[in-house]
Amino acid sequence: MYTEKAHKNTVKRLRSWLSPVASRSTGAMILCGALAALSACDRGADSRPGSLAKIKERGELVVLTRSAPTTVFQDQATYSGLEYDMVRSFADHLGVEVRLEFRDTVGQLLGDLAAGHADMAAAGLTRTEQREASFRFGPSYQSVQQQVVCHRNAVVPKRLEELPQAQLLILRGSSYEERLEELQEQLPDLTWTATDELGTEQILEKVWRQEAECTIADSNIIAVHRRYFPELVVSIPIGEALPLAWALPKDATQLQQALAEWFENPDTQTTLEVLQERYYGHIDIFDYLDTKTFQKRVQQRLPRYEKYFRRAEKEYDIPWTLLAAVAYQESHWNPQAVSPTGVRGIMMLTRPTAQYLGVEDRLNPEHSIMGGARYLASLRQRLPEEITEPDRTWIALAAYNVGMGHIRDARLLAQRQGRNPNLWQDIKTVLPLLQQKEHYKTLKHGYARGREAVRYVQAVRDYYDLLTQQLLLASRQ
After folding, report:
1. Residues annotated catalytic, as ranges
2. Residues 8, 102: one domain?
3. What CA–CA distance (Å, rounded) separates 312 from 374?
4. What is the pLDDT of residues 418-471, one digit of tens each?
5. How do 232-237 and 97-102 pair as beta strands?
6. DSSP bridge pairs for 97
7. Which residues contact 276 (CB under 8 A, 6 or more apart)?
8. Which pTM value belongs to this model?
């Protein structure tokens, strides 16, 4: 059988034979003709979607994706998301630009990939046996598990045998439907309703609004959206963990090889760890009561102070929703809050900090918010230039909690341990070590409650994300 590998080997042999004789003989001319013919075949293959040569020739990687918090979303005027940042990093490696093509459903996305409308699909796709029959896949970058999720007031199955009792609404043509078809062999009464008009995230929202009872989604999608829709209850897993990977056309062998080599690079693994921290690092253990309380206070308390947060955003170039998240973590938006240690006000400023900032009345919400914003902006400005966003903001938030001196100690400790002192991912790893004598006794500022600072930043990031999504949901109603 004359495979692509055999073809490449033949070309290689012809080139090695041709080199010594150059073009001085008829034999060389024959070899040149044979090599040209084989190269023409190679060029023909390169015209197919997913061809590495074609991608580099056009200077553009065409990627199919979906708009979702776990894939690609617009953050103000730019794109963000784990999938987007990974794709952009791979495109930079290839030396080309990225062109995103959005599709509403996985079925549309895979159909268009099979039809040759793109080079690859990056959309949180699970690699299943059925899909591998039609596509190639890159290396796995995350593992997820399919889970049944219901509204807390619905009939929630507790065991797999009870699944036929659930009224399921799922995405047509998805890996969830593949799995249900497999389960139907052992659970003949199992039924479901499939739709291709909604995405997984939209179906979860319908369950939350009690317009559907239950659905099935990947565990990473549920972890993100359960915080926005706290009435969702995770029921049971319906299978083993599955890998997420990028899908490629069936004949995109060179692109698949390039992906594999890129993923094996240690720099790529570091990038992936940073991105996992960026998009999932703040998602802590779900707390239903805390989330519900926060949602109520967004409606009942936040409107009183929103104008001050927005004014602070204009003056200090910090998103007002982030400042509001800091204030909620500090005081739950209570301008009269006072702690046993003497910090007070909606931004819980210490007396020395308030004096430094020129805040005369810490219990005045406008003064406190403007002072807290000014302080956070100054901390962000005092960090070394080599710390870039969003790490710059997360590390500044840690300094807001624990003090800049301890952050300098943490950066030094990170360097000692061979970590990157400019990444929040590494700083949050060493901050708890400031509570251990073997470490803090070697540092200038001594003991610090570093673990508390890590929890503080994670909580602020969580409230920031929750607030952003709640405001987005409200705008759609």
Report:
1. 330
2. no
3. 8
4. 999 999 999 999 999 999 999 999 999 999 999 999 999 999 999 999 999 899
5. unpaired
6. 60
7. 82, 142
8. 0.72
